[in-house]
Amino acid sequence: MKKVLVLLGDPRLSDPVKNQGKFNAEDLEVIDVLKKALSLLSNYEFEYFDEHAKLKEKLANFNYDYVLNFCDEGLFNNAELESEIPKMLDELKIKYTGAGVKCLTECFNKIRVKEKARGIGIPTSKDVLVPNGHPVNVNFCFPAFVKPNYGDGSFGIDRNSLVKNESELKLQVQNIKLKLSEAGRKDDVLVEEFLEGYEISAAVIGNEIRLIQEKFPKNINFNLHETKWNPESKYWNETVSIKPEISFNVQNKIKEYSLKLFKEMGCRDYARFDFRLDSNNEPRLLEVNPNCGWCWDGHLTKAFLIDKYEPETFVKYNEKILVDYVIVLEKILKTAERRF
Question: What is the largest CA-CA distance in the chain?
Fold first, then answer.
């Protein structure tokens, strides 16, 4: 019997990524499903902890085999403090699942990830960073895509993120900087060339890798923040993940790039890598997510179950999926235990 402490985001605190800046019923539901799934593992005893103000005290009296670090919100639900939890665990010499401090810190900086990717021969979309107080100058053709350089959960992404000219670009950069400032975050903005091709995610757990493809709402060829977080949005659940509709040659390239990045960025146990295809159907890296979402309807789970279930299965929770969801979770646990 292994005793495992599961660390989660703190529902008592605000969270700017989530709908209305707080934990909602749908967020609490995915935690309940996680607990139901893990309860099926008879050789484990799980305890759940989410009160971040008392985290140091909890860890100081640690009496578990290891930590399952599923706090992808960051310490105090601050994405910029995501690496602080592994830092605490390292200082106390506590074993934990997932990426360490250096990996989380580097991958939080999107332009840094792409620079490292290009350095090992992995193509990326063209981009330019717009730091605070700097003018907006791009050296590639429109359309372009505007997003925070530091962030996750599609924070700051709306229908105006895709810009077609200079005036739209400058306005959207200002809008995102304002949102970031209001949320108390770094306001560096990343402007990328917009790739019209399919968006493919590669999910890795241990030495296994699976691919899924995003199918976006009509007239919107990318993920909006509201499609992920706002149940009242007309786009809620409009984006679905499907089996890749691309050649095996392209799939193999994405897998090869992802495994190289897994090693280069120092990922551990599991991660997700997001690509888009250019006009020549060549995959180009967008982002690396070393502490990606673990929920039953998240990209990681869907990638490992898409061959078994129809895409519609992940729109509304059904307990039939529980027995397979726990297999995905167990893969993470067993991978970490082998590494330990």
Answer: 61
Read off φ and ψ for residue 310, nearest 5 degrees.
Answer: -75, 150
DSSP letters along 83-137, please? Answer: THHHHHHHHTT--BSS--HHHHHHHTBHHHHHHHHHHTT--B--EEEE-TT----
Going by C-alpha positions, the residue among 152, 126, 125 that lies closest to residue 223 is 152
Do residues 181 and 211 share a domain? no
Does 133 have pLDDT greater than 70? no
One domain, residues 284 and 269: yes
CA distances from 110 to 103, 152, 285, 290 (A): 12, 10, 10, 12
pLDDT of residue 206: 96
Q: What totals of helices (H) and strands (E) does the chain contain, helices first?
A: 10, 12
277 vs 321: CA distance, rounded Å: 31
Is 18 part of a structural domain of the chain? yes
Strand partners, 14: none
* 334 and 225 inside one domain: yes
The whole-angstrom separation of Cα 129 and Cα 244 is 31
Omega cis (within 30) before 283? no
Q: Is the pLDDT of residue 29 over 70?
A: yes
How would residue 312 be classed by pLDDT, with cut points 50, 70 and 90? confident
Q: Per-residue pLDDT tens for 172-181?
A: 999 999 988 8
